[in-house]
Amino acid sequence: MFAVPPTPAMIAFASSWLLAMGVLPWIRVVAHLCAFRFAQRCASGHSGPFRAISGHFGLFRAQKKDPIVDFRLTFGSCLRDQLHVLKGTIAHVAPRAHRATQGAMGSQQQTGLRWGILGAGKIASVFAADAKAAGIRFTAIGARDTGRARAFADRFEIGRAHGSYEALCADPGVDVVYIATPQAFHAEQALLAIAAGKHVLVEKAFTVDAASARRVFAAACEAGVFVLEAMWTRFTPTMIAVRERIARGDIGEVRAITTAHHQKLDLSRAGRHGDPALAGGALLDLGVYAFALALDLLGTPHSIAAAGRVDVAGVDLGAQVLLGYPDAGASLSFSMAHPGPNDASIMGDEGWIHLDAPYFAWTAFQRHDASRPARLVESWEPYAASGMNGTRGMQFQALELERSVAAGLQESPLMPHAHTLAVLEAMDAARAQLR
Amino acid sequence: MFAVPPTPAMIAFASSWLLAMGVLPWIRVVAHLCAFRFAQRCASGHSGPFRAISGHFGLFRAQKKDPIVDFRLTFGSCLRDQLHVLKGTIAHVAPRAHRATQGAMGSQQQTGLRWGILGAGKIASVFAADAKAAGIRFTAIGARDTGRARAFADRFEIGRAHGSYEALCADPGVDVVYIATPQAFHAEQALLAIAAGKHVLVEKAFTVDAASARRVFAAACEAGVFVLEAMWTRFTPTMIAVRERIARGDIGEVRAITTAHHQKLDLSRAGRHGDPALAGGALLDLGVYAFALALDLLGTPHSIAAAGRVDVAGVDLGAQVLLGYPDAGASLSFSMAHPGPNDASIMGDEGWIHLDAPYFAWTAFQRHDASRPARLVESWEPYAASGMNGTRGMQFQALELERSVAAGLQESPLMPHAHTLAVLEAMDAARAQLR
Asked: Domain GFO/IDH/MocA-like oxidoreductase spans what residues (chains A, B) (predicted)?
């Protein structure tokens, strides 16, 4: 890790290292220096009190736009005493293949971090069971009343049960707070935990919109704590394996992604999904998986088109979304008002990967080549070699947090703040097109 | 069939008939009279020399926009002596369920129609084999040279082999011409056949754009001959069964359609697909199935967004397309430059239908209900009870043409000119958005 912006000397060093590693055929070196972009943003006055910026510089193939090896950089600025302070980190000085294998399946880490859970609902239970199985250490649970917290604590053998979220965040025996409440409350509760100096894992959708997320990241930056969106499917062995195959060229350049996520949920006001006060809606609850997958593999879209239905209470029931890129596209279809398929496909010039239903999980995948008809060349099963049979897969995000904090990072290289923001910005743009 | 525009008396008659049939609960009668829209178009000067217009009037549920029972009407005008002549036909005076069962599987009809094939390529062979098995009577084949035509005639036991398309069209022993050449030539050759007074079945895509199609329909209208786009998947027992299930409410209101069509084809200039001179491109070759399916079930889209790639020669390689409707949406994904899935899903409030890969064929489907997880309630197999094992399914469009001509129609109720035009107009709109 470097605590300063990359200098020409650093770039030269990294370049020569990569050339020595045998990437000599890639003859054109192009450096997109984030510092330059950052300065541009500040100069244009659009940076706001906080703005996470990520960029890359890398080695490019002649006549190809996509870098073969890229360095990812993440910069942030905090509004502190009205001065923008530039913090630069080289988050990845590694070729893609290396990046893809990061966040591997290691469990039972001994980081000493003590976790508290904020919220005692269904998702908190699934997470607690999975994370405990992976060696995560829980010391406290906080719920809206003590009885509820106590019952949860007893079930998962957690030491302290707090009857309020404030008490949980004030607990000096907690280093990390996992926020497992409906998304309408995430921003407020994340700010509460950050103010108490805790690292935070925030259930997805991270916040109800990008503006709220920027406030949370700004506070985390000022407080110097780690914040991660609980986009658990990004950290599963499934997606690590998928990214690895893409990085090594198994399916060629990614050209198209299709995702399907359709469930007829309880949309009465009694349930979370149909309640506008709880920020219920298909976009934040279902669509977030699709946007996160597409943006992980294709980056920030150049164009967004969305069509969908909004009910009388203002809750979006589902949508079809088109994400356009210069050389690729993604078709996302999701709804909580009707049933349908729940799989996804990632297509490249030389093959394609089918993610089994439900794709938004620690799922199986099949890889096909480009012959006609396409030949199945790999069938990947989720639990083999993981040593984690019986878990749902929500532990991997907790392990990613522990690994990142141990490395002194303030954000995950696999799901940096800029990615969470890009997903929320894209969903904001889609929402604006729904009627 | 009525040869005049519907009058208020006709509407009253039809309404009372339907009310007598037990649809009394549907209390609001709304009439969209095509004559009115037609007059509007003429008045606005946008109608051009020919414009097919379709519309509907029907019985509507209170507070619902979608008609439960609809009458479909198709109007056309011909530029004849500079006068627009209005021809009105009530193409469907039938509830949806009746419409869905039209074009059933009957074969070996004895209409006496004599068919000629224009073009001796691959698709002509498949069609000839299927249609012969269904009792279609071929009397002539025309190709660019006599040897090629003779070989085809020998293979399929067809009497006369013509060495030019002109000779085929001039053959007095031919009543119907099936045009099986690359789509760049369809309009010109259809006009040739129409000028000779033949009925025409034109391989899809019907023409390269909507403007060309309008010229063909105008000529057919003037000549009084039948013209049909060979959108063969619309006439298969598969789609008849699918429409029947939708009409009887098995999956509720259709809310979303997703289609996937991905094949890595030969895109060298030697092949048809990559040749701009032959109007090669994914939109016309692959996308046409997706647009035709979506527009069949959801109607003309209210919004169209497309993202895709065009190669240096101007050939579109593939695209993601979003079709927006007030209460539904369709996500279409297709490419001829990379492999991927080839299935489709039709989702409604109460269930969904999965069309097996390749969905653009006489395929199998599975119907699921809306429980969680969705329960398989029907598995439909294509060849059962068809009596047509061993055929690919291209005969059904020929049977539809024979049935329609025998009924004195100038267009198919299942694929009227307005549908072909709507598909081409939507593809024109999508093409304009590809870079």
From this structure: 241-353
Partner B contacted by A352 (CB < 8 A): yes
CA distance B272 to B259: 24
Q: Please tell me which of A4-18, A389-403, B161-175 the model is most confident about, judged by mean pLDDT.
A: B161-175
Q: Do B351 and A330 touch (CB under 8 A)?
A: no
Tell me phi and psi for residue B423, to 5 degrees: -65, -45
Taking contacts as CB-CB distances below 8 angstroms, the residues of chain B near A352 are: 262, 338-341
pLDDT tier for residue B70 given thresholds of 50, 70 and 90: very low
Q: Round to whole Å and give the CA distance between A316 and A287.
A: 11
Q: Which residue has the tokens 């910026």?
A: A53
A204 part of the active site: yes
- pLDDT, mean of residues A133-141: 97
Q: pLDDT digit string (tens) for A187-217?
A: 999 999 999 999 999 999 999 999 999 999 9
- Smallest CA–CA distance from B348 into chain A, residue: A338
Query: ipTM score here?
Result: 0.77
Q: What value does the mean pLDDT take over residues A166-174?
A: 98
C-alpha span between B257 and B346 (Å, rounded): 5
CATH of domain A234-390+413-431: 3.30.360.10
pLDDT exceeds cutoff 50 at B322:
yes
First to last CA, chain A: 46
Where along chain B do its domains lie? 8-94, 115-232, 234-431
Q: Which CATH class is domain B234-431?
A: alpha beta
pLDDT value for B109:
53
Query: Would the CB atoms of A256 and B303 count as touching at under 8 Å?
Result: no
Burial A263-294 (b: 16+ CB within 10 A, else e): bbbebeeeebbbbeebbbbbbbbbbbbbbbbb
Q: What is the pLDDT of residue A255?
A: 98
Instruction: Please classify residue B122 by burial: count the beta carbons closer than 10 Å to its beta carbon, then call 0-12 exposed, 13-18 middle and 19+ buried.
Output: exposed
Q: Does B329 touch chain A (CB under 8 A)?
A: yes
Q: Looking up tokens 């607690």, which residue turns up?
A: A128
> Fold identical between A115-232 and A234-390+413-431?
no
pLDDT score for A57: 33
pLDDT for B385 equals: 60
CA pair distance A51, A130, nearest whole angstrom? 33
Mean pLDDT score across all residues of chain A? 80
DSSP β-bridge partners for residue B336: none
Superfamily of domain A115-232: NAD(P)-binding Rossmann-like Domain (3.40.50.720)
Shortest Cα distance, chain A CAs vs residue B339, angstroms = 5
Please check whether residue B52 is in contact with residue B417, taking contact to mean a CB–CB distance below 8 angstroms: yes
Say whether pLDDT at A307 is over 80.
Answer: yes
